[in-house]
Amino acid sequence: MQKTNSKVYSLVIAISFIILSLLGSVHFWSFNESFYKKEHDKLMLYGKHISEYIGISDEDLEKLTRFTLDYLNDPKASLDIRMNVNGKEREIYTDDEKAHMVDVRNLNLTANYMLFDAAMVFAFFMFFYVFRKYPFRTLYDTYRKILLYVGIFIAIVGAWIIIDFDSFWTFFHHVFFAGNDLWLLDLRKDILIMIVPPEFFNHLVVTIVITFISLIALFYLVLYLLQKKETVND
């Protein structure tokens, strides 16, 4: 019975940690303002820096970025904001941009709930796994087997991103924003996509994947050392 319980616990721990690592990596980098500023400082749109291309100051670009990110985490927030663009005050986002951001916010809020749930499940089952003194060898073996499938998935997605990021990004939107084409924004007139152009998302996705791989590899190393220590003590 104890052996069966340890296998069930180890399976839940392994899966919840992988979900936690993935969603945690996505959330951390998607809302990291320093990352946005670094990208804004180096990315160019048609030969101009992003703020210059949009027609706003660097300070206003930071303010607009922060405002937009805050909106994604607040179900009651509005995306109405006016700024001076090329010397004229105007509403920043069009109705289509706002409608798309409603979809993005709903997706993000769902991901936040899943992130919280994964963290709670992982913490709960990990606590009782240690409390009941289940063998780390079982958890290590289970996690290692699951990582084989995760590794294959990462290899396929990683190759896809490297070879043809545009088709990967299009597929992503078709899956998560099925039913409308509001995500098809115009880089020459829609400020939302100017703030986060395709190259930005390329860098963001690569950074998320690297962080995700690092986290699951670190947990693998920890489990490897724990089961090694366990074997020596036995």
The profile of the biggest β sheet is:
2 strands, antiparallel
State the order of secondary-structure elements, H for helix, E for strand: HHEEHHEEHHHHH
Q: Radius of gyration in whole Å, from Cα?
A: 22 Å
Tally of DSSP helical segments: 9
Helix amount, in percent? over 70%
Determine the strand fraction and express it as a percent band. 5-15%
The computed structural class is mainly alpha
Poorly predicted tracts of residues:
none
Straight-line distance between termini: 21 Å
Shape designation: elongated
Strand order of the largest sheet: 1-2
Mean pLDDT: 93
Count of domains: 1
How many DSSP E strands? 4
Description:
Helix content is 76%, strand content 5%. The strands form 2 sheets. The protein has a two-stranded antiparallel sheet with strand order 1-2. Strands 3-4 form a two-stranded antiparallel sheet. The chain has one domain (2-229). It contains 9 helices and 4 strands, in the order ααββααββααααα. The model has no long low-confidence stretch (mean pLDDT 93). By secondary structure, it is mainly α. The radius of gyration is 22 Å and the shape is elongated. Helix 1 (2-30) runs parallel beside helix 6 and helix 6 packs across helix 7.
Could you give the topology of this structure?
Blueprint: H1 2-30, H2 33-42, E1 44-45, E2 48-49, H3 50-54, H4 58-72, E3 82-85, E4 88-91, H5 95-131, H6 136-163, H7 165-176, H8 191-195, H9 198-233
Antiparallel strand pairs: 1-2, 3-4
Helix pairs in contact: 1-5, 1-6, 1-9, 6-7, 6-9
